[in-house]
Amino acid sequence: MIHFSNLIEVLYAFLHVRFTLKLLDKMRCLRKRSAVSFLGVLVICLLFLNLYIEDSYVLNGDKQLIRDAATHQLNSERYVHSFKDLSNFSGSINVSYRYLAGTPLLRKRYLTIGLSSVKRKKGNYLLETIKSIFEQSSYEELKEIAVVVHLAEFDSTWCDGMVQDISQKFAHHVIAGRLMVIHTPEEYYPALDGLKRNYNDPEDRVKFRSKQNVDYAFLLNFCANLSDYYVMLEDDVRCAKNFLTVVKKVITSREGTYWVTLEFSKLGYIGKLYHSHDLPRLAHFLLMFYQEMPCDWLLIHFRGLLAQKDVIRFKPSLFQHMGYYSSYKGAENKLKDDDFEEDSFDLPDNPPASLYTNMNVFENYEASKAYSSVDEYFWAKAPSTGDFYVIVFDRPIKISRIKVVTGTEDRQNDILHHGALEVGEKTVGGKKGRQCTTFLRLGEFKNGNLEITDVEHKVLFDINCMRILVTKSQKEWLIIRSISIWTSQLPSQ
User: Fold this and answer.
1) Membrane-crossing residues (predicted)?
2) Which residues, 6 or more positions from 416, have their beta carbon under 8 angstroms from its beta carbon?
């Protein structure tokens, strides 16, 4: 049985070490008093998250103490409308939505795509964004998605006109039940005037970004039970072709690993993927801290509070910012994601495998980082003749294509100067795990890179192992930037 005092001691020590420097650095423009105050609020938030994830381990009396502390810290008069039940972070927020187009889903989908939109002073990209989502999806993919557009504008005339345009241009998607347009009445919003002016932002900027946090919170709350996964977009985005298929591949490749957020764009809060079961907690989090900082900063803190320390971002990016004018005052916004590729369908399969190397690994640049589509790499000190990097697949597979890239743009000499790629058929157990006893050489590295196609026609057996072999010692260190494997069929069950 864990008591309140013990929780305070443990969480205070943890937060003091981990968050203080990070928060003060990120919020360098914030006054010292505001930074300490917000850290206190984060302590309370983490207490709530811990309390209701492991609810059965906390005494009822301790729960009441935490509720009282939170009420005092967060100014109950401001939050009372949105937080009638602070004791249930995993429950939905009590909001009545208006369906402007579409009807409730009859069955659960694989992915919900959510975007919130308001009236802009210059330009409007919402219709183009919706068009891109549908045009870049195949008929089979369309069966597995739901698109929810939250018109978060209090100007009813603008909303009516936008609903009419959407309903006319995308009538068949509305009828098919894959497109819904919703609106949250203004009465459900918390105070949007007299907010804290963090980072010396002008009052209208603070109001804009604070309302935006609430807009997204209500959108997340609505989408919580529509699908297994949720991806957040802005209303001025272009999508890569067959993006859903790529997302499904990535999710499958992460099976058995813990993650809170997978990122498919490096810009703002575009292309951020979540488990749908995390949406209610994220919605509460955005509402609780809606006036503290912009949405994309809050998402970073949310991910950290749920124990995902590092960013998990995939390349190429699947979503691109296409708007020229910001929704805030029509200011210019030329941000582009230079990792975006419109045709990203050719993502490697990289089936589940164990990775081994006898090279001298530098710091935490371990072998697994070369076999992931995350923007990371394997780095070893100068390798010698006979050193190896081995991939042992969980099941025998047929491979159609292999591509290996070594070195990086800023370390162009840290390549494999002399090496070969080999595949093996049979494995035997050992102290260091399964290994293949014999290998067939498929090709040699040239200028640090190697790509082999039609592998299934060159190798007559199902492949158990793949090995990168150093054939001549080198004084330069070695970076294996990426290993990409495409299979010609799924592994046998």
Assistant:
1) 36-53
2) 383, 406, 445, 448, 468, 470, 474, 478, 480
- Asked if 324 and 334 count as a contact pair (C-beta separation under 8 A), the reply is yes
Residues 6+ apart with CB under 8 A from 409: none
Q: How far apart are CA 235 and CA 162, in angstroms?
A: 13
φ and ψ at residue 430, rounded to 5 degrees: -160, 180
- How far apart (Å, rounded) are the C-alpha atoms in residues 366 and 386? 19
CA angle 378–380–383, rounded 5-degree value: 130
pLDDT in tens, 273-331: 999 999 999 998 888 887 777 787 888 888 888 888 888 888 777 887 675 444 444 44
Residue type, 277: H
Span 341-362, pLDDT tens digits:
555 556 777 888 889 999 999 9
| φ, ψ (nearest 5 deg) of residue 471 | -100, -10
- In this structure, the number of other CB atoms found within 10 A of the CB of residue 341 comes to 16
For β-strands 179-183 and 319-321, DSSP reports them as unpaired
Please answer whether residues 70 and 85 qualify as being in contact, where contact means their C-beta atoms are separated by less than 8 angstroms. no
